[in-house]
Amino acid sequence: MKECKKLITERRAITFFDSAKEISDDLIKEILETASLAPSAYNLQPWKVVVAISKEKKRILKEIAFNQQKVEDASAVIVVIANPKAAVENIDRVLESSIELGYMKKERKEVAKQRILSVWEDQEQAKRKAIRDSALFSMNVMIAARVYGLETHPMDGFDEKKLKEFLNIDEEMYVPMIIAIGYKDPDKALLPRAYRFKFEEFGEII
Q1: Could you say which of 46, 48, 151, 179 would form a disulfide bridge with 86 (CB–CB 3.0 to 4.6 Å)?
Q2: What are the beta bridge partners of residue 170?
């Protein structure tokens, strides 16, 4: 419990990365697969990612992200994509797994499938679910990164149209954020954490 709280409280949005340090493909994959344990509606996991690690790709992404230097300096940049077509694309694999693991009887599959698809047919519902669940996944990415001593910075400051063109992302997809990930520049110090509201300022118990 203490370790979990430590990881959460240590997470900061780092603006200065050590540009000389790299992250291995295996470590990136491990962090992202750990993050994919995030909850999602009907377990449809409506997220995709593109990870930029090459200097040239990061340089172009920096321009797309309004020249934020951290995009180029980070060891990698994770582009999080919310997929509103996840129900159609993932439903069969998800339900077959539920049957195999004993969560559902085989004869219930078609009923469940049609019920789920009917919800995702509504484009606004599909968009909201995809973005919400991708945000849960993204938060897990940032916490998982801390386990390995890495820092992150989530950003929504970028030209989404240019980003989609650059990475050949389907126009129907949404990009809720990109996440810079890497190691903090050891020569720079963090300021104290910015003010956080107390419970009494944002919540109530009824």
Answers
A1: 46
A2: none
Residue span of the structural domain in which 87 resides: 11-185
Q: What is the CATH number of the domain that holds 171?
A: 3.40.109.10
Q: Whole-angstrom Cα distance, residue 161 to residue 75?
A: 24
User: DSSP secondary-structure letter at 103?
Assistant: S
Q: Which of 79, 31, 35, 84 is nearest to 53 (CA)?
A: 79
Q: Is pLDDT above 90 for 197?
A: yes
Domain membership flag for residue 191: no
- Note the pTM of the prediction, 2 decimals: 0.95
Domain count for the chain = 1
Question: Is beta strand 151-155 parallel, antiparallel or unpaired with respect to 47-52?
Answer: unpaired
Q: Is 201 inside any structural domain?
A: no
**pLDDT grade for 1, boundaries at 50, 70 and 90:** confident
Residues 6+ apart with CB under 8 A from 133: 38, 39, 40, 41, 44, 45, 46, 47, 82
Whole-angstrom CA distances from 54 to 51, 71, 109 are: 9, 12, 43
Amino acid of residue 88 = V
